[in-house]
């Protein structure tokens, strides 16, 4: 069955024959775990079996089942021509000529302008990395690591020396976290193979974590930021309730795993101190065992301190922003509603690994971070043109907003729990 009667017999799923003509209504029916279609540049693909072999993981591609994945497809793949050959056998047809290129409530004008912006910055070479920048960054990490171990070797393990070395390892581990992020996003080398190789070295040998675990988790966050049941970063395992929708749902259902009205207080005891040494460590260990992906761990003291650093930097860009169920929005609108920036300064750039430019990073995940500031004026102009809020804060305001957001969500839960 095709749009307007143009197709009477659908193509065999996965046959690669572009004989089907479909409406969005028909495409959207194929969004279950055992039946998944998506659209890229108006072409309809059956990814049901391919999802299991998808290099980025099955979940990220499945999040777009029944939807238009064109913008995400462009954002995550450095060589689109190369990837197209994997799509060809999955082709089952195309959208009917009467159907719009976008599904749901996506803004066609924003999509067109963003495509033009992406083409412009690519033409200007803003997706090309500066090797010296990343070599120096790796160099200062290795220097701190070596100094810490040398100090212990030659000056012993007094309390003062232990704390000083733990501080140095905290800095090096945090900065290694930002560096592995660069390689994980394929934003340094032209060839994906080299990015993957160095990524495994930095995250595996310097941080004792799993590249597979990070890739499968982090790209879901980028594909569907702050979208419940799709973004793993807002899955708080019932320890916290986030946004304005989830607290009310929990309250109405009388769910009380924790005293959520006090979550802005116990966040300091549970969030920053324990995320890396316990929660991430358990996930990494699970990945190591189930996937036989063996890695090496680092001292727990440095992990404990690094966890504070990591949590504040990564959460201040997202937790205070909108956290909702799927709205099926265009790429720019979806990313801007879930993301905010922190003011630029030399310290903020270094401290956050340039993730103070979180908006630009989410819009262009493969862009080298040293170029984020160059595209900011054009992104802000586009947002102003289309009435999309572009939020930027001071570092301290961003941190404070994490706590105030948790407080607001906790109050919403308590009100719903008691009165609804």
From TrEMBL:
Can you provide one Gene Ontology molecular function annotated for this UniProt record?
acyl-CoA (8-3)-desaturase activity
From the UniProt record, list the reaction(s) this protein catalyses. Answer: (8Z,11Z,14Z,17Z)-eicosatetraenoyl-CoA + 2 Fe(II)-[cytochrome b5] + O2 + 2 H(+) = (5Z,8Z,11Z,14Z,17Z)-eicosapentaenoyl-CoA + 2 Fe(III)-[cytochrome b5] + 2 H2O
> Segment Disordered: which positions?
1-20
Q: Does the keyword Lipid biosynthesis apply?
A: yes
Keyword terms of this UniProt record: Fatty acid biosynthesis, Fatty acid metabolism, Lipid biosynthesis, Lipid metabolism, Membrane, Oxidoreductase, Transmembrane, Transmembrane helix
**Biological process per Gene Ontology, one example term:** unsaturated fatty acid biosynthetic process
GO cellular component terms attached to this protein's record: membrane
Could you tell me the EC number(s) of this protein?
Answer: 1.14.19.44
Q: Does the keyword Transmembrane apply?
A: yes
SUPFAM superfamilies noted in UniProt: Cytochrome b5-like heme/steroid binding domain
Pfam families, per the entry: Cyt-b5, FA_desaturase
Superkingdom of source? Eukaryota
Q: Which residues form the Cytochrome b5 heme-binding domain?
A: 19-96
**To which pathway does this protein belong?**
Lipid metabolism; polyunsaturated fatty acid biosynthesis
- For this protein, the parts annotated as crossing the membrane are 132-152, 266-282
Q: How does it sit in the membrane?
A: Multi-pass membrane protein
Q: Where in the cell is it found?
A: Membrane
Q: Which family does it belong to?
A: Belongs to the fatty acid desaturase type 1 family.
Which protein are we looking at? acyl-CoA (8-3)-desaturase
Organism this protein belongs to? Poecilia mexicana
